[in-house]
Amino acid sequence: MKKINQALGLTRSKDFISRYEALKKETLSHPDIQMFLNSHSSSIDEELIEKSLMKFYDYTTQQKDCSNCPSLTDCKNTVKGYIPHMKLQGKAIELFYEPCETKTKVDQKRQRERLIQSLYIPRDILKATLFDIDIDSEQKERAIEAADQFIDDYLTGKKPKSLYLYGSFGVGKTYLLGAIANDLADKGVPTLLVYVPDFLREIRSGIGDNTLNEKLNFVKKAPILMLDDIGAETMSSWARDEVLGPILQHRMADELPTFFSSNFDFNQLYHHLTFSQKGEKEEVKAARIMERIKSLADPYFLDGENRR
Ligand code: ADP
Ligand code: MG
Fold first, then answer.
1. Atom of ligand 1 lying closest to residue 175 CA
2. Helices within 29-158 (DSSP H only)
3. Roughly what angle, to the nearest 10 degrees, separates helices 16-28 and 53-60?
4. Are 194 and 225 in contact (CB under 8 A)?
């Protein structure tokens, strides 16, 4: 009864007995304890109750639901994030612990975050799912159906083509990519989302510090890659031929799913890739990149309002 003594703040004062009895009464009248005792009435006697008072008391002092709990770090339970359950084991009453709702959610979120890695894409775009995405146009519906089909096919071991989502600024291309990544994460499939303009900028700065190959390999080998906003960058010949080209080549050869989003359709992207910064026209090289993109993904036009 050490814990109860502590709770009473006494060792052997005069009114120990009466306060002990009061606490015992209060503990045993807790509705959960009552229910537990009632459902085991044939196997629990007075002696066992007396012997188990500390466990019962321990149980009643802990939170059983998270409705008033601001966060996992504020959890006051004996084991943070776990709620106690009572169990009759042989001739003893034991408490065992299960993760609470808050802890389960935090764990799921962590698991999800492990599965979706993003480079330079704000996390808030990744909250969408295909199930609750707002469908405000027929074109969007077509794209969502194709995305669903992709996920089904991918999970059954087929080699489906990815999606190239294009349309104007703010129609929800990145949002849809995020939804696909989330749905894949729910099925345990990891995705890497990359915001192309920032990625290329960083890759350029990686030339000097030999992290270039490491970064390139990371993107080349991601099980599922999403290249967001291709065409929004100022693509140098070097980025096109030494970065984008090899990434796409590798992914094509290994049949690794690669999604794209762009403000440009295929034709516009081809033109964007054709002109080098020096102003020369490099049609063959641009055409080679376009071939790879087309072999990896089918185009889906997204329309609708600018949602920004
Ligand atoms: P894009 O990549 O086509 O420029 P975004 O995906 O960034 O557009 O979407 C613009 C804004 O609209 C974002 O803030 C996004 O969260 C929101 N949004 C886009 N599509 C939807 C949708 N289907 N339902 C709810 N919000 C959306
Ligand atoms: Mg976008």
1. 6
2. 31-39, 46-51, 53-60, 101-115, 138-155
3. 60
4. yes
3-class DSSP assignment, residue 63: coil
pLDDT tens-digit series, residues 223-272: 999 999 999 988 888 899 999 999 999 999 999 999 999 999 999 999 99
Q: What angle do CA 52, 20, 11 make, to 5 degrees?
A: 100
User: What is the token pair recorded at 66?
Assistant: 């998270």
Residue 167 CA to residue 79 CA, distance in Å, equals 51
279 is written with which tokens? 């102003």
**Phi and psi at residue 281, in whole multiples of 5°?**
-95, 125
Alpha helices (H) along 119-187: 138-155, 173-186
Q: Which atom of ligand 1 is nearest to the CA of 135?
A: 23
pTM, 2 dp: 0.72
User: 18 or 276: whose pLDDT is higher?
Assistant: 18
Here the tokens at position 205 are 């700065």
* pLDDT at residue 296, rounded to an integer: 98
Give the integer Cα–Cα distance in Å for 6 and 245: 71
Q: Give residue 231 CA to ligand 2 midpoint distance, Å.
A: 11
Task: Write the residue with the smallest CA distance to atom 12 of ligand 1.
Answer: 307
Q: What is the mean pLDDT of the chain?
A: 88
pLDDT in tens, 150-190: 999 999 999 999 999 999 999 999 999 999 998 898 888 99
- Ligand 1, closest atom to CA 228? 2
User: Where is 213: in which H helix or E strand?
Assistant: helix 212-221
- In short, whether 169's Cβ falls inside 6 Å of ligand 1 is yes
User: What tokens were used for 49?
Assistant: 């109750």
| CA nearest to 261, candidates 123, 116, 109, 125 | 125
Could you read off the pLDDT of 60-117 as tens digits, one per residue? 999 988 888 888 888 989 889 999 999 999 889 999 999 998 998 888 777 777 777 7
Contact criterion met (CB below 8 Å) for 82 and 103: yes
Q: How far is the CA of 117 from the centre of ligand 2 (A)?
A: 16
